[in-house]
Amino acid sequence: xxxxxxxxxxxxxxxxxxxxxxxxxxxxxxxxxxxxxxxxxxxxxxxxxxxxxxxxxxxxxxxxxxxxxxxxxxxxxxxxxxxxxxxxxxxxxxxxxxxxxxxxxxxxxxxxxxxxxxxxxxxxxxxxxxxxxxxxxxxxxxxxxxxxxxxxxxxxxxxxxxxxxxxxxxxxxxxxxxxxxxxxxxxxxxxxxxxxxxxxxxxxxxxxxxxxxxxxxxxxxxxxxxxxxxxxxxxxxxxxxxxxxxxxxxxxxxxxxxxxxxxxxxxxxxxxxxxxxxxxxxxxxxxxxxxxxxxxxxxxxxxxxxxxxxxxxxxxxxxxxxxxxxxxxxxxxxxxxxxxxxxxxxxxxxxxxxxxxxxxxxxxxxxxxxxxxxxxxxxxxxxxxxxxxxxxxxxxxxxxxxxxxxxxxxxxxxxxxxxxxxxxxxxxxxxxxxxxxxxxxxxxxxxxxxxxxxxxxxxxxxxxxxxxxxxxxxxxxx
Amino acid sequence: xxxxxxxxxxxxxxxxxxxxxxxxxxxxxxxxxxxxxxxxxxxxxxxxxxxxxxxxxxxxxxxxxxxxxxxxxxxxxxxxxxxxxxxxxxxxxxxxxxxxxxxxxxxxxxxxxxxxxxxxxxxxxxxxxxxxxxxxxxxxxxxxxxxxxxxxxxxxxxxxxxxxxxxxxxxxxxxxxxxxxxxxxxxxxxxxxxxxxxxxxxxxxxxxxxxxxxxxxxxxxxxxxxxxxxxxxxxxxxxxxxxxxxxxxxxxxxxxxxxxxxxxxxxxxxxxxxxxxxxxxxxxxxxxxxxxxxxxxxxxxxxxxxxxxxxxxxxxxxxxxxxxxxxxxxxxxxxxxxxxxxxxxxxxxxxxxxxxxxxxxxxxxxxxxxxxxxxxxxxxxxxxxxxxxxxxxxxxxxxxxxxxxxxxxxxxxxxxxxxxxxxxxxxx
Lengths: 478, 428
Prior knowledge:
Distance between the termini of chain A: 10 Å
Number of helices of chain B: 8
Number of strands of chain A: 24
Number of domains of chain B: 2
Largest sheet of chain B: 11 strands, mixed
Strand content of chain B: 35-45%
Oligomer: heterodimer
């Protein structure tokens, strides 16, 4: 029976096609000259070049971290192309001028960008290799004073906001990959929600790596001013190559007084084939700063792709009464490795955090939860509840939990619990009795296991996550 | 030279000095363990003295030790003997069959009454094959002990023999700036059963680095009580390594009250199926004490059961550390493992760092772990206050109850009584 469970979760990757477009590619490798070239190509102001060079010099002094519970061949940083963009002669006035090949790509991924097809009420910023292709609903959002554009555009048009917030949550020298990202980041999304504004629609970025030799280094910055709220979604896919590609992104969220940010990710980068060949190295730093009173940041993630995932979406709860949440489903299969979790740093008074993490490991994969809950000496009445459940499918996959709990204030209350389980024969038998095939039964059991997290996803994304898991589960019971 | 590399050189030199003192002590003893010692010495030479940069020592800062040049202990003089005699009077276990006393790592014949199951290495001279053979001997402090211990208690419980009376082993560390390395080897042959009480006490600011190896063979049962009540100026680093064969049962209760810095590494290695392992621990500390418990349960065979409950109470500016690892590899199907760590922070300056770890490959298992940190529950205090118990008394009552969960099940009545009294005084 366990072989049927095994085959049910092993599905081909549907987004593995390559789009044939002419690219503007810079030479391989990394040096100060390359960074100057990137900055020049993007026509950046002086402060950005300084920001990049400073980060690069720090990166040179740092060592790649070895503590995550993942194994991979050393990365040759001089063999990566740090900038790749679809060729375009001049600045586009509207999305209709975008290369139809690229529009077709996003269409194929289920994201119609062209004006007439935009039916759903979601504004999308589409990032193809290193650059933003287009942002939808820009004008509608501008009416509310909301800025939603690519980060390169923001550098040109809103330099004061960029200078104030870029690197304020994740400093360049935070870790090896953030320094690398700060030095070479090519594009990403920027969101600013003004005071007392509820963003009228969900905002979304879709990342697509197309070039086989390029890395993707994007940067997302979301600032929610006092009393505002926003829901932000992020999706990722990549073609199938048999070489590994590096994705080192940085996401920074800032929530001022009474602001709320919901940030959801469905990550489905190419995971490599069943022998572990190819796939994306997803080394991402995501951090939210609840700087204001009563602010709230909520991370929801569904991680199904990437050969290696190494990410810890975190909340720094500085404002009094601020709230941090982390809901995660991580599914690993074949040779995939995931070391993921969260950090909740309680700094302000009466801060609260919740962590719900569901790990599913199948095949020969490795799935680790690594989390930190830290209560600083002055964080009176901090409260944390953490729950990490693992589900093992087959006896060759690996589920680990490494929760770090550090409490320096006695008024804090911290609880952590973890469990492991598997899909039992008796459960499948129960379903079979009622005429439900093992395939559907497993799908339902996994869906039920993940329900706490899926419930937190916005409507559109919940549907996508369900589809994604269903995809991993379709037509395979022999 | 950068500040970090200077620190590394300083730690290396410090470890070399410790090793020299250990070697000096070893040369002074009559034991002949040349090859065992040489291997251990080589191991220590390869290592550096741990710092906060090592994951295993991240929260336990040993840098204050670097200022203290610990020396090999001299032979016991009359004053120490008198002091030790006084101390021992408070440690009597009525039920025990004799007692084995080591003072500063050396067997104190005048203070001991050897039960038949216990021998002392310096007297028998024959080296048991099992000595130094349990996994985990590569760890720097364990190797340091092997390189320099001056004597060892050898407890051998014969096949199918059941000892009704507990065996009491007392290790005293008396004096200042001494490096003291007690050693113990327990072999419970198949079908045997015994209760072992190990106690660590002392006066003065010395460094005790102990190692106990326990072999629990097929169907044997060992109940092990370990009490650490060293002087509050002392440093205590202890290793308890257990090898558990098929159908064996091992129950441990570790009580940590003393020392300014203490670390207990308890490691259980399963070598057969259907073992039962129970690890209970209570740490109660105050002032600026630091107490660190690192446990490892490595299950390698099916049908193992492991239960762990570690309770820590931190008062004043004290700092508790817990790290519990449970390994369940592919072959350990049908394992049932649970681990719970509960921490009580009594004062605003107290602190705890805990990390319960699970590492699981086998899929047909039941594994769970949990950790909690809090102060006394306000509603519990209110409940007691509403019944006319003043706040102060109510607090004491709740702390007492929290601790007694670990003390009450102690199987040796006189030790249970002594510990109950200790907790009552501690909560005042």
